[in-house]
């Protein structure tokens, strides 16, 4: 609106933009200053100036209407208080206003007024708004705004070309931290699908290409908002005042509380442990309780706890361990214990086999102390046999011979990877979930062994191996995966064909062939990962698909670091998620449409002219 002329007259930022009489007669005008279109409105005897682009989707506000001090955009009818630009409709954002002065020779305005908040703060606030109201476009705009703040968006590139760019920290840390704070506080059931997706996206962040980093953050934040919407908040407990309790005592108390499904009690003990003990001891306590019973929640419980740890690692243990890890407790105290399921009891009581092996563990670990185990070539294939007693004996023998938790978890994860890579497409479609659960659980157990050397994690290996056994019929017959060979194709062409293949339904085996061919052609696995990331993040990918790709990338990295890994084994880690993706794609890509709109708005494109 018009400012005090005495103040404004002394400010040389003001520029003449319109004739007073003409504006009064016409009621409105659009002027351009420094390339920015500004709408002027004469209303109730005053002049107001606002950015002509509606902050929602860019429609010209000069084509809106004004009544009683409210400017209404005509595209989606967002309303703005005319003087300061505040919106009535949180999904639209506030519109920028400009100070106006009426002088004798015309209308003057300040085209570059000082801002109340810096852009990074504005986008952080908008991200919070988007999470609170579950507004996808607001979240997408905020993530792009945070990432692009101070950076030329034109340098960001996509996918198969392999071009890379490094985003600003605000494009990563702020979305992850904000979503963790929100999801752990406002979802009564705590850490679930949404926060696990966020953690997966944080883990994938370095592997995906330039603009896909923004898509990854959008995916994670969006899932947190979606899962939290409509939930009652979670009220966090407090640590005990007694800071002298030993690790052994806290571990015992925690396991006892989880055993009787006492979430509040378990939470107080865990918060005390986080306050008193180092990270590896907290990991010991949590992963031990997560394996006291068998394969909790189809493997999700331990997987979620592991992801919570890794998400905290991204944003800081000191500030976030308590809320994030405490929020996982429903995954332990409310979990289905697989020994309660008939599939673990009939026709073979594999639960009993596993519990018997638990009883042997102290002696096996003592026998293996000081020994060095080397995985025999036949070991992983034996874990795929149709004989649960043989599998248990194979694992317990390895422990007796000195196999570490890391070595054993890695071997089981290799077997679980094969279940996905060789999944036969003649199975029922939902059985993809079955092999997926085993795969991500086995991978999570392996990841957990890097966080604690607790020998209780051998129990996670046994669980995962029994789940591999239960999945045995899903590899009959084994799906074809090409053996390593040679190809003279350009790896870029292979990657582009792989993306094309995700555009068609049912290209599962073709995806496996292309991944293999990329290796045969000498392509860089990092480029292949970026292409898989591109294919993943443009889709409305389901929770399991997102997890599957994250686990595949982690398995590939683990295998690539191991000189003893043969070529096919490493390839299978990327064949598995590629096949999984091909089975579930294409989707409607509605989230990509929202992301695309947000990107085009950020670049200043005029959406209304091309829709
Ligand atoms: S309300 Fe203005 S563009 Fe949607």
From TrEMBL:
Segments forming domain Rieske: 14-109
Key words of the record: 2Fe-2S, Iron, Iron-sulfur, Metal-binding
Keyword Thylakoid among record annotations: no
GO molecular function annotation: 2 iron, 2 sulfur cluster binding; metal ion binding
Pfam family, one: Rieske
Classification via CDD domains: Rieske
Region (Disordered): 151-173
The name this protein goes by in its record: Rieske (2Fe-2S) protein
Entry cofactors: [2Fe-2S] cluster
Positions with biased composition (Basic and acidic residues): 161-171
Organism: Halomarina salina
Source organism superkingdom: Archaea
């Amino acid at each position: 609106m018009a400012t005090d002329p005495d103040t404004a007259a002394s400010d040389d930022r003001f520029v003449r933009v319109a004739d007073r009489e003409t504006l009064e007669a016409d009621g409105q005008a659009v002027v351009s200053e420094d390339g920015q279109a500004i709408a002027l409105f004469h209303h109730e005897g005053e002049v107001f100036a606002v950015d002509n682009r509606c902050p929602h989707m860019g429609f010209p506000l000069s084509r809106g209407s004004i009544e009683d001090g409210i400017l209404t955009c005509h595209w989606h009818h967002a309303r703005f208080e005319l003087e300061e630009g505040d919106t009535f409709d949180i999904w639209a954002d506030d519109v920028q206003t400009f100070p106006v002065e009426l002088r004798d020779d015309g209308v003057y305005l300040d085209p570059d007024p000082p801002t109340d908040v810096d852009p990074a703060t504005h986008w952080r606030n908008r991200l919070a708004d988007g999470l609170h109201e579950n507004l996808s476009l607001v979240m997408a705009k905020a993530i792009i705004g945070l990432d692009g703040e101070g950076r030329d968006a034109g340098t960001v590139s996509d996918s198969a070309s392999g071009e890379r760019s490094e985003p600003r920290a605000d494009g990563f840390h702020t979305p992850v931290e904000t979503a963790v704070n929100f999801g752990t506080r406002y979802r009564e059931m705590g850490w679930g699908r949404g926060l696990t997706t966020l953690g997966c996206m944080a883990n994938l962040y370095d592997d995906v290409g330039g603009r896909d980093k923004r898509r990854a953050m959008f995916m994670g934040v969006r899932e947190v908002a979606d899962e939290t919407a409509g939930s009652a908040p979670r009220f966090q407990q407090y640590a005990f005042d007694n800071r002298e309790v030993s690790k052994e005592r806290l571990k015992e108390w925690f396991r006892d509380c989880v055993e009787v499904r006492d979430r509040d009690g378990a939470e107080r003990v865990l918060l005390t442990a986080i306050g008193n003990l180092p990270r590896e001891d907290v990991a010991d306590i949590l992963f031990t309780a997560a394996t006291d019973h068998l394969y909790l929640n189809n493997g999700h419980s331990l997987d979620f706890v592991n992801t919570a740890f890794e998400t905290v690692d991204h944003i800081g243990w000191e500030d976030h361990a308590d809320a994030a890890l405490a929020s996982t407790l429903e995954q332990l105290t409310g979990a289905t214990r697989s020994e309660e399921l008939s599939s673990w009891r009939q026709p073979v009581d594999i639960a009993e086999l596993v519990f018997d092996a638990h009883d042997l563990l102290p002696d096996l670990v003592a026998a293996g102390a000081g020994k060095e185990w080397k995985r025999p070539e036949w070991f992983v294939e034996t874990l795929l046999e149709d004989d649960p007693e043989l599998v248990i004996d194979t694992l317990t023998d390895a422990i007796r011979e000195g196999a570490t938790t890391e070595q054993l978890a890695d071997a089981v994860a290799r077997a679980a990877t094969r279940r996905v890579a060789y999944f036969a497409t003649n199975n029922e479609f939902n059985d993809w979930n079955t092999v997926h659960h085993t795969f991500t659980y086995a991978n999570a157990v392996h990841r957990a062994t890097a966080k604690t050397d607790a020998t209780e994690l051998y129990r996670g290996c046994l669980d995962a191996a029994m789940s591999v056994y239960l999945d045995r019929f899903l590899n009959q017959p084994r799906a074809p995966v090409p053996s390593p060979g040679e190809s003279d194709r350009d790896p870029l062409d292979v990657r582009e064909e792989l993306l094309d293949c995700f555009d068609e339904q049912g290209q599962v085996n073709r995806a496996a062939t292309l991944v293999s061919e990329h290796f045969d052609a000498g392509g860089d696995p990092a480029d292949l990962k970026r292409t898989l990331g591109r294919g993943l993040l443009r889709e409305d990918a389901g929770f399991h698909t997102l997890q599957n790709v994250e686990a595949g990338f982690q398995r590939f990295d683990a295998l690539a670091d191991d000189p003893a890994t043969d070529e096919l084994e490493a390839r299978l880690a990327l064949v598995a998620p590629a096949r999984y993706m091909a089975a579930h794609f294409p989707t409607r890509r509605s989230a990509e449409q929202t992301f695309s709109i947000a990107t085009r708005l950020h670049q200043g494109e005029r959406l209304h002219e091309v829709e």
